Amino acid sequence: MCEKCGNFLERFRFDEREYFALLGQLKRLVENRTFDEVADDMPLEFASDRKNWPVEGHIHHVFVCRDCQRRLELSFDTRRLAGMWDLARADANELSGR
Ligand SMILES: [Zn+2]
How far is the CA of 59 from the centre of ligand 1 (A)? Predict the structure, then answer.
C-alpha cells in the first residue's frame, strides 16, 4: 500500500464543519508535497470562505498522490452542505473502462 495516500483511500461523507477541517488538512498535504492539486473550481483557501461559494452548486478539488499517481477527489455540495471524499471519477472510469 502507498505510504503517502494509504490512509486516504476510504470513501467517506462529511458535513460543513468537517469540510473546513479537510480544506486545512489538504492545504498542508499539498504544501508538504504529499499531494499535488491538479484541478479545482477555486483555490483551497477560497473554498473555506462561504462568500466564495456558488449559490447552488458543487465545489471540487482533485489531488494526485506524488508517489503512486492515484487521483483523489474532494467534492462538496454547497446547497445540501454535504460532501464526499473518494477516488477521482477519472480513475474510476479508467478502472471500469479498460
Ligand atoms: Zn499514493
Answer: 23
